[in-house]
Amino acid sequence: MAIPTSNQEIMRDLAWFRYNLRRFVRFSEKAARSCGVTPQQHQLMLGVAGFTERGTATISELAEFLQERNNSVVGLVERAVESGLVTRQPGATDRRQVIVSLTAKGREVLGNLTQLHHDEVSRVRVGFLTGWDWPRRSAGNRKPA
Amino acid sequence: MAIPTSNQEIMRDLAWFRYNLRRFVRFSEKAARSCGVTPQQHQLMLGVAGFTERGTATISELAEFLQERNNSVVGLVERAVESGLVTRQPGATDRRQVIVSLTAKGREVLGNLTQLHHDEVSRVRVGFLTGWDWPRRSAGNRKPA
DNA sequence: CTATATTACATCGTAATGCGATCTTTTGTC
DNA sequence: GACAAAAGATCGCATTACGATGTAATATAG
Question: How far apart are CA A9 and CA A38, in angstroms?
């Protein structure tokens, strides 16, 4: 793909970029639901397991990872605990902190989702840079594929 | 960045990818609001101007671009019309269709947002592939930067 | 060239979810 | 020890995308 120069070309380029972004996100959401968790829970688990080197995360770290407010994460963690995906324990050194860890179930689900995402992310990374299939047309009011 | 091989490395890599994705999206949302429109309206306008070669789009095309349901787009367009960003006109050949176009105001706002996004997207594209700063820690319950 | 199916969009009600404001508890600093 | 800052928790709320369904216009079968 040529480097866009006119404003019109830049817009088309940005549109293409966002379109692929959205398609990837939808893919990911669908994958999460196919594994029995919400997309948000998937992201939460990914943050717990992959954001730090410890394999655990505090509420604040998760808020940074998810780019959300502190209080939004609290509720998200709460629901994930109820679903048996993560556990919470008070911080050892700093008792204000809450350490979020994955349960066995959480590790299993995240492992499956990680496999599902690996190839797709590779494709998307390339697609973000180079050209893409750029499909056209949809139909009716059906759910986007 | 080395190619991740172990499952742990893959998870960290995916986490890094999603983290950058989210940061970009937040950047974009903030930019949209700074121009007086909602992030959804920005994406809608981008779809109108950049998804097809015509510079206009139908509801279905926008639904494909945004990867949303048809009826979701109807409401989105409705609000954008009320905000004076886009116009709707029945299709010339197919009167079932609705052609969405940008108003002068819409073009101006989208132009500003396009400039704001151009550099950032370039950075993000590289960041999706290569290493990144990978910042740490947040603080309190303040809005993520 | 009517009958039927399909497409494109609209309407309505609903559930999820992230946010703002505020509060409590713990830690840091002077 | 007093005060400030940080880390979470709680509550109410607004936004928004979705599912189900309806209507008008176009395509297709016979």
Answer: 37
User: What distance in Å separates the CA atoms of residue B51 and residue B11, rounded to the nearest whole number?
Assistant: 33
Q: Whose CA is closest to B8, among A137, A125, A118?
A: A118
Q: What are the C-alpha distances in Å from B48 to residues A6, B64, B77? A: 17, 12, 10
Is residue B59 within 8 Å of B70, Cβ to Cβ?
Answer: yes
Segment A57-87, tens digit of pLDDT: 999 999 999 999 999 999 999 999 999 999 9
**Model confidence at B40, in pLDDT bands (50, 70, 90)?**
very high
Q: Which residue spans within chain B are E strands per DSSP?
A: 57-58, 86-90, 98-102
CA torsion angle A138 A143 A145 B4 (round to 10): 130
Q: Cα–Cα distance between B64 and B69 in angstroms, integer? A: 8
Residue with tokens 């132009």: B111
How far is C-alpha B117 from the geometric centre of its chain's CA atoms?
10
A3 CB burial (10 A radius; 0-12, 13-18, 19+) = exposed
Give the residue ranges with Cβ < 7 A from strand C.
Answer: A 38-40, 68-69, 71-72, 75-76, 79, 93-96, 138-141; B 58-60, 70-71, 74-75, 77-78, 88, 91, 94, 96-98, 141, 143
